[in-house]
Amino acid sequence: MNKKLKYAAAAIAVLGAAIYLNNTNHLAAHQEGKPVLLAHRGIAQRFDERELKNDTCTAARMLPSSHHYLENTIESMRASLAAGADVVELDVHPTTDGEFAVFHDWTLDCRTDGRGVTREHSMAYLKKLDIGHGYTADGGKTFPFRGKGIGLMPTLTEVLATFPRQRLLINVKGRDPSEGEKLAAVLDKLPAERRAQIMVYGGDEPVEIVRQRLPDVRTISRATIKSCLLGYIGYGWSGVVPKACHNAMVMLPINVAPWMWGWPHRFLNRMKAANSEVFVLGPYRGGEFSSGIDTPEQFARLPANYSGGIWTNEIEAIAPLVGK
Question: Which of 113, 116, 211, 277 falls 20 to 30 Å from 310 in CA-CA distance?
């Protein structure tokens, strides 16, 4: 072997050793504490998730119910916190009378006795609807929640007033920048210490507005999470954290996590240093992120002594596994 090849081999060996030492967990501090649990939509009625499309009416595919809670309601949020959730996720739509309605669907037809696009109505109208109207687990033979959800659609203002100290994740359902302006105006009225307990995610345009207006609020959108994760896979070995990963809520599918340099402890430490918080989801299967870590089998895929965040639809099942 000539000298040039020897030098090249030595340089490669040194670089490899440096990358290893910079990313090995043997030299990384472990963040103590139990995982942070995020309850997606509070405690909700589950549904058959096979072959879902954007316009699938999930209320019509409800699985046999084990509880009486309806998603995105004050009661379901309160129950999820009591069950061990540290953070509650909720969905919001602007209304024609200046409020934000807490409701998941783009339209009212599936889940309620109303009709039309959610944001094209006033909150006064939405308050009159039965949000349990469309739930059925037997193809429409019975509707166990019909008549029980009248007036249960809350406003964002009501949620903030009911849970003044609890951590919240707000999902902006649309992509209109004006939604970001309106939401930023609402959050800007809160004390700085309260805003520090709130995260925002959703459409690229409104989330970017919130990110610009309120730099103390952690945010993430489809574009920024892709930029964050792909950037980190590309050059995170160096210890450099992509800009998109700063001051963010980092949503990380469990099957993508092993690709993160320094996973888990060094990765979590780097995100913490960037003022970001990591939440692991279920497996990414292309096109869409999975909804959550919802079974003991999925939970078992997390590293031992994992202390980051966990996104779940089954807070009642997952909380006992972490001792909450």
Answer: 211
> Are the beta carbons of 253 and 36 closer than 8 angstroms?
no
Q: Is 42 exposed, middle or buried (CB count within 10 Å of its CB: 0-12, 13-18, 19+)? A: buried
* Residue 149 sits in the same domain as residue 284: no
The three-state secondary structure class of 5 is: helix
Residue 69 in domain? yes
* Calpha distance 280→40 (Å, rounded): 12
* Angle formed at CA 173 by CA 168 and CA 175, multiple of 5 degrees: 125
Inter-residue contact 115 to 109 (CB < 8 Å): yes
Residues 323 and 275 in one domain: yes
Residues 123, 101 contacting (CB under 8 angstroms): yes
| Dihedral Cα 287, 291, 297, 303, nearest 10 deg | 80
> How many CB atoms sit inside 10 A of residue 127's CB?
16
Strands 36-40 and 309-312: parallel
Report CA-CA distances (Å) from 20 to 42, 237, 276.
41, 8, 24
For residue 2, how many other CB atoms are within 10 A of its CB?
A: 7
Backbone angles phi, psi at 88, to 5 degrees: -115, 130
Q: Tell me: the pLDDT tens digits for 101-143?
A: 999 999 999 999 999 999 999 999 999 999 999 999 999 999 9
Same domain assignment for residues 56 and 184: yes
pTM: 0.94
* Residue with token string 């997606």: 40
